[in-house]
Write a structure and sequence with these properties.
Length: about 130
């Protein structure tokens, strides 16, 4: 079992940047495929980005591609989400999630129910 804790959220103006971190404990992060999701108030959970165990495979959600970058440092047991050119519509609670296995197809990264472990979330608010 792995425990995930997100940090780095906050309030930022449109056009600004934030970097979210997801620290893992309990089991080594290199065991897991990792994903970032977000959920805005009153909306369904949305896929943001996913990364394979060895960082060789990355997929982004359509709404963030070109602005967000996912990365991981298995030695530090941490996954990151660098968010640039933030927009008010990026406002949401951001969650990191983990699933076991190694996957090469996008379909295995984008579905929230496929992830077994979740953090508590961190709020990101982008003001216009």
């Amino acid at each position: 079992q792995v425990l995930l804790v997100e940090s780095g959220g906050g309030l930022v103006q449109a056009g600004g940047s934030l970097r979210l971190s997801c620290a893992a404990s309990g089991r080594t992060l290199s065991t897991y495929t990792m994903g970032w999701f977000r959920q805005a108030s009153g909306k369904e959970r949305e896929y943001v980005a996913g990364i394979s165990k060895d960082s060789s495979i990355i997929f982004y959600g359509d709404s963030v591609r070109g602005r967000f970058t996912i990365s991981r440092d298995n030695a530090k047991n941490t996954v990151y989400l660098q968010m640039n050119s933030l927009k008010p519509e990026d406002t949401a609670v951001y969650y990191c999630a983990a699933r076991e296995g190694y996957y090469s197809s996008r379909q295995y990264y984008t579905r929230a129910p496929d992830y077994r472990y979740w953090g508590q979330g961190t709020q990101v608010t982008v003001s216009s």
